[in-house]
Amino acid sequence: LCVKRSLEMIIGILGILKAGGAYVPLDPEYPQERLIFILEDSQVKLILTQEKLVESIPQHQASIICLDTEWEKITQEKTSNPESGAKPDNLTYIIYTSGSTGQPKGVLVNHSHVVRLFAATDPWYHFNSQDVWTLFHSYAFDFSVWEIWGALLYGGRLVIVPYLISRSPELFWELLCQEKVTILNQTPTAFRSLIQVEKAPPNPPCTGGLGGRGTKDDLKLRLVIFGGEALEINGLQPWFERYGDQHPQLVNMYGITETTVHVTYRPLSMADLGSTASVIGRPIPDNQVYILDQYLQPVPLGVTGQMYVGGAGVTRGYLNRRELTEERFIPSPFSPSKLYKTGDLARYLSKGELEYLGRIDNQVKIRGFRIELGEIEALLAQYSAIWESVVVVREDTPGDKCLVGYVVPQRSITLTIEEIRQFLKAKLPEYMIPNTFVILEALPLNSNSKVDRRALPSPEQIHRSLADNFVAPCTPIEEILALIWAEVLGIEQVGIHDNFFELGGDSIRGIQVIAKARKMSFNLSLSQLLQHQTIQELASLVSQELNPLPTQNTEKFSLISEN
């Protein structure tokens, strides 16, 4: 199925399932390389699409039906309601998720997996025909399965959000108010953008046709459900202050495509504010979550281990990836069934709830130290001046791994990198403080509304973009120091007002700078570099060392007054 967000999308899905088939979403917004791989891997026999997209579909061997232009042929078919013939264990969709090898992997999901998801969660949510949902996410992201069938299985209304509106928090807020949406599903990152819009002063009515931003009274939400990525609870404080924690009810759900969208459930309240823990709650009733050690033995309460999921939500496995399926979908040591090995770290808390602690592969090793990136991100989330942040490992220079923190300040707050560094310095050892910080207006999102880590700019890109403020070295001392910095930091040019640490410097690189400076007979210390972080300030120190102020000679005088 390769269509834009439209009525044809839902018609296509229903038609495929009614015919007893399974759908493979080919989001036209995805890169060509990814679409080529999915077509080759899935070997689909038929593509339902729209005429304007035919030319953009990569080369394939499948037959094509254009849902928007071939109705004359379609209407010649029988109009009676055909028997589907689909059984609970038949395949319903194949959704491709990112793989650690760089190639996506197709997850095989049955009808029974989806139907039981709603049967298991119905006692909590009480979805009904009066509910209004949004299809906000790409239909190639499994959050869409929850959005589509949460509306249709209960006779509710589904608002298909146009792509450009899904990328504009202002327009999406207007849509929520205008369409009187009651059930909203968001990644935490996307919802934080909505909070920013809601906090901002109202704008004049827009010319896009939605009629201007709605007010608090226009909002009809009864449920906001988070999923897709870890939730930083303190980012919800502005929302709770304005709306409380009951209307709407906010819920955090943890899930994975391989275990059919959602695994756990946790209602949120204002009492959770101030916590740095990412609590994901309890398993859905027909799922089991085990925290196991490397020997597949349960760990004690409060001890960190890897999360394994069992129960009715565990899917078939991966298409054409038998070895990977056997590696991730393992025989359960507790029952005659399968467990899915999530690769996520967690622990059970004293009240029986789960705390999510990040990915196993999010633990990195730099200069011999093991570092959990999630720990740094959790501390940054505590800083009141920071709206959102992410920490990654970059290796822009081969063999030189470094931590980079990307930070979005709170609205109307001017935040300096030195302030961020000093905040972390009081809480973390030196080796866990990012080498470089990049301040952004917003974090880039992918088509699934998650932070797109691959799209984060390199510190060097940011440095080049600030070239308009570049002030070249003027004196020989400034020129020598600038060359030393550029060599150590691996950048092309350094201005006299550039900050050593903002360019990617750290104490290790600082030692290298001092060593090279001393070879040039500049008598500098590391403590001086920490205090004087620009070329101009350092050059002034060196100049004073090389050219001390002349001593004024005083003429002889008598210590005894002549009088």
Automatic annotation (TrEMBL):
Cofactor: pantetheine 4'-phosphate
GO cellular component terms, semicolon-separated: cytosol
Gene Ontology BP term (one): secondary metabolite biosynthetic process
Domain Carrier: 472-546
PROSITE patterns: AMP_BINDING (PS00455), CARRIER (PS50075), PHOSPHOPANTETHEINE (PS00012)
The keyword Phosphoprotein belongs to this UniProt entry's keyword annotation: yes
Matching CDD domains: A_NRPS_Cytc1-like (cd17643)
Domain of life: Bacteria
Entry keyword set: Phosphopantetheine, Phosphoprotein
Family the entry assigns: Belongs to the ATP-dependent AMP-binding enzyme family.
Full protein name: Peptide synthetase
Organism: Planktothrix agardhii CCAP 1459/16
Lineage: Bacteria, Bacillati, Cyanobacteriota, Cyanophyceae, Oscillatoriophycideae
Gene: mcyA
